[in-house]
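Provenance

Sequences were taken from public entries as deposited. Structures were produced by running a predictor on each sequence independently, with no templates supplied. The record for Helix-turn-helix domain protein from Caballeronia catudaia is shown for reference.
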Amino acid sequence: MSHEERSSAPFIADAIALARARMEELFRTFGARLPAEVQQDLSRGMEAILCEILSQHPAFRADADDFVSTAEAATLLFVSRPHVTKLLEQGKLTLHHETQDNRFLTRTSVLLYRSSLEAAKRAYQASTRDEE
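Predicted structure for Helix-turn-helix domain protein:
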Protein backbone atom coordinates (compact mmCIF):
# COMPACT_ATOMS: atom_id res chain seq x y z
CA MET A 1 0.00 0.00 0.00
CA SER A 2 1.43 3.39 -0.99
CA HIS A 3 1.76 6.37 1.34
CA GLU A 4 -1.14 8.07 -0.46
CA GLU A 5 -3.40 5.03 0.01
CA ARG A 6 -2.54 4.84 3.70
CA SER A 7 -3.17 8.58 4.10
CA SER A 8 -6.45 8.66 2.19
CA ALA A 9 -7.93 5.65 4.01
CA PRO A 10 -7.92 7.36 7.45
CA PHE A 11 -9.33 10.50 5.84
CA ILE A 12 -12.27 8.57 4.37
CA ALA A 13 -12.77 6.87 7.73
CA ASP A 14 -12.79 10.30 9.42
CA ALA A 15 -15.34 11.58 6.91
CA ILE A 16 -17.56 8.57 7.57
CA ALA A 17 -17.22 9.02 11.34
CA LEU A 18 -18.24 12.66 11.00
CA ALA A 19 -21.20 11.69 8.81
CA ARG A 20 -22.26 9.06 11.37
CA ALA A 21 -22.15 11.66 14.13
CA ARG A 22 -24.34 14.00 12.08
CA MET A 23 -26.76 11.15 11.33
CA GLU A 24 -26.96 10.32 15.05
CA GLU A 25 -27.80 13.97 15.76
CA LEU A 26 -30.59 13.80 13.20
CA PHE A 27 -31.85 10.53 14.65
CA ARG A 28 -31.91 12.02 18.15
CA THR A 29 -34.02 14.86 16.79
CA PHE A 30 -36.30 12.88 14.49
CA GLY A 31 -35.52 9.30 15.49
CA ALA A 32 -38.67 8.65 17.48
CA ARG A 33 -40.58 8.83 14.20
CA LEU A 34 -38.32 6.30 12.42
CA PRO A 35 -38.07 2.57 13.14
CA ALA A 36 -34.57 1.36 14.12
CA GLU A 37 -34.17 -0.70 10.94
CA VAL A 38 -34.95 2.38 8.81
CA GLN A 39 -32.32 4.34 10.73
CA GLN A 40 -29.76 1.58 10.10
CA ASP A 41 -30.63 1.45 6.39
CA LEU A 42 -30.28 5.22 6.12
CA SER A 43 -26.89 5.13 7.86
CA ARG A 44 -25.58 2.33 5.64
CA GLY A 45 -26.85 4.08 2.51
CA MET A 46 -25.26 7.37 3.53
CA GLU A 47 -21.91 5.65 4.17
CA ALA A 48 -22.03 3.92 0.78
CA ILE A 49 -22.81 7.20 -0.99
CA LEU A 50 -20.06 9.04 0.88
CA CYS A 51 -17.47 6.35 0.08
CA GLU A 52 -18.46 6.39 -3.59
CA ILE A 53 -18.27 10.18 -3.83
CA LEU A 54 -14.90 10.39 -2.08
CA SER A 55 -13.40 7.55 -4.11
CA GLN A 56 -14.44 9.22 -7.39
CA HIS A 57 -13.12 12.70 -6.52
CA PRO A 58 -9.70 13.22 -8.14
CA ALA A 59 -8.10 14.54 -4.96
CA PHE A 60 -8.99 11.41 -2.99
CA ARG A 61 -8.20 8.72 -5.57
CA ALA A 62 -5.27 6.55 -4.56
CA ASP A 63 -4.23 6.14 -8.21
CA ALA A 64 -3.88 9.88 -8.75
CA ASP A 65 -0.47 11.21 -9.79
CA ASP A 66 2.07 12.35 -7.26
CA PHE A 67 1.01 16.00 -7.56
CA VAL A 68 -2.20 17.93 -6.97
CA SER A 69 -3.47 21.32 -8.05
CA THR A 70 -4.02 24.06 -5.51
CA ALA A 71 -7.77 23.42 -5.83
CA GLU A 72 -7.32 19.71 -5.08
CA ALA A 73 -5.02 20.54 -2.16
CA ALA A 74 -7.67 22.93 -0.82
CA THR A 75 -10.22 20.11 -1.02
CA LEU A 76 -7.92 17.71 0.81
CA LEU A 77 -7.20 20.26 3.54
CA PHE A 78 -10.73 21.75 3.77
CA VAL A 79 -9.37 25.26 3.20
CA SER A 80 -9.57 27.85 0.42
CA ARG A 81 -7.22 28.00 -2.57
CA PRO A 82 -5.75 31.33 -1.38
CA HIS A 83 -4.94 29.67 1.96
CA VAL A 84 -3.15 26.85 0.11
CA THR A 85 -1.14 29.49 -1.77
CA LYS A 86 -0.25 31.11 1.56
CA LEU A 87 0.87 27.74 2.97
CA LEU A 88 2.99 27.22 -0.14
CA GLU A 89 4.61 30.65 0.23
CA GLN A 90 5.29 29.93 3.92
CA GLY A 91 7.10 26.73 2.94
CA LYS A 92 4.58 24.44 4.63
CA LEU A 93 3.73 22.79 1.29
CA THR A 94 6.10 21.79 -1.51
CA LEU A 95 5.79 22.99 -5.10
CA HIS A 96 5.92 20.16 -7.66
CA HIS A 97 5.77 22.32 -10.78
CA GLU A 98 4.19 25.48 -12.13
CA THR A 99 2.51 26.27 -15.43
CA GLN A 100 1.60 29.71 -16.73
CA ASP A 101 -1.57 29.97 -14.66
CA ASN A 102 -1.42 27.09 -12.17
CA ARG A 103 0.71 25.70 -9.38
CA PHE A 104 0.90 22.02 -8.56
CA LEU A 105 1.99 20.70 -5.18
CA THR A 106 3.47 17.40 -4.19
CA ARG A 107 0.68 15.15 -2.93
CA THR A 108 2.96 13.90 -0.17
CA SER A 109 3.52 17.40 1.26
CA VAL A 110 -0.24 18.03 1.31
CA LEU A 111 -1.00 14.70 2.99
CA LEU A 112 1.80 15.17 5.52
CA TYR A 113 0.55 18.66 6.35
CA ARG A 114 -2.99 17.30 6.80
CA SER A 115 -1.64 14.54 9.06
CA SER A 116 0.24 17.09 11.18
CA LEU A 117 -2.95 19.15 11.57
CA GLU A 118 -4.91 16.05 12.59
CA ALA A 119 -2.21 15.06 15.09
CA ALA A 120 -2.22 18.56 16.59
CA LYS A 121 -6.01 18.45 16.83
CA ARG A 122 -5.92 15.06 18.60
CA ALA A 123 -3.22 16.28 21.00
CA TYR A 124 -5.25 19.38 21.84
CA GLN A 125 -8.42 17.34 22.37
CA ALA A 126 -6.54 14.92 24.63
CA SER A 127 -5.09 17.79 26.67
CA THR A 128 -8.47 19.46 27.14
CA ARG A 129 -10.04 16.11 28.04
CA ASP A 130 -7.39 15.68 30.77
CA GLU A 131 -8.19 19.11 32.24
CA GLU A 132 -11.89 18.33 32.72
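The mean pLDDT is 79.
The CA atoms of residues 79 and 86 lie 11 Å apart.
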